Amino acid sequence: MKKLLLLFTVLSLIVSSCSSDENPPLEPKDSTLPKTIISIYPGFSSDTALVSYDDMKIKSIAYKKYKVYYYYEENLINRKAYYNIVEGKEVKVNEETYAYTKGKLASIKYLDIFTSTYPKKINIRSVYTYLADTLIKEQRFSTDYLTKIETEEDYFSLLTVKNGNRIKEVVVNTKTNIPSYGLRYVYDNMNSPFKNIIGMSLLINDEKSSLNNRLSRSSADSGTYFDIKKYEYDPNGYPNLETYYKGEGGQITNITKYLY
Fold it and tell me: Could you tell me which of 212, 156, 151 has the C-alpha nearest to residue 185?
């Protein structure tokens, strides 16, 4: 009973903190889409990704060594497939299948495809339950590739999503209902490069779903920063340069350029 009461208290605090914080509505969508994404890793290498579209629907993101395809059912992204580029050929390595209920993400099924050295498949499933307007429970299940028995993972997450951004995540032990740790996310009030892609905002497991740009990710308990991002913006409020710093030490991990 005490453990359940503790979980109820955590849920109450998260919901109350969200409902008391009001932000202005987001601007209407426009036709701005990133066509090229250049990733620079100082002292190492760089990569250029070409993004293709069918009108406002994303079709693929092609990097030097891998490619991601997106598939739609009407205006909803229902599948993503990942391929490695091996000797000029595309080799499928995993995929994600999405299901929706009443216009909200209901579940994701992950399928990891191993090479011939490890001829097995692992199925992982995430299920989303909407506890409040801004609070979502994410449960993860895995299926043993030999017995085909599905079991729930040891931890589930409570996601706080507001104004199109995931602002908090609390990881809770499935058996005890005791919170293990939490993450806090801070965003700017400018446009995400991906905000106009049809269906992208519903994929709450993907950072591309955010309508604004993440500035930092930190521990909700200690306040320790895991990473920080800084941006330069174009005249329309979209980032054309993103600099990623690991932790608070000021060391640049990578630089991303967006071309629209």
Answer: 212
Number of residues assigned to the chain: 260
Under DSSP, is residue 177 helix (H, G, I), strand (E, B) or coil? coil
DSSP letters along 35-99, please?
A: -EEEEE-TTS-EEEEEEEEETTEEEEEE-SSEEEEEEEETTEEEEEEEEEEETTEEEEEEEEEEE
Number of H helices, E strands in the chain: 1, 17
**Per-residue pLDDT reduced to its tens digit, 136-151:** 999 999 987 778 889 9
| pLDDT, tens only, 187-246 | 999 999 999 999 999 999 999 999 999 999 999 988 899 999 999 999 999 999 999 999
Rg (CA), the chain: 20
The DSSP bridge partners found for residue 259 are 36
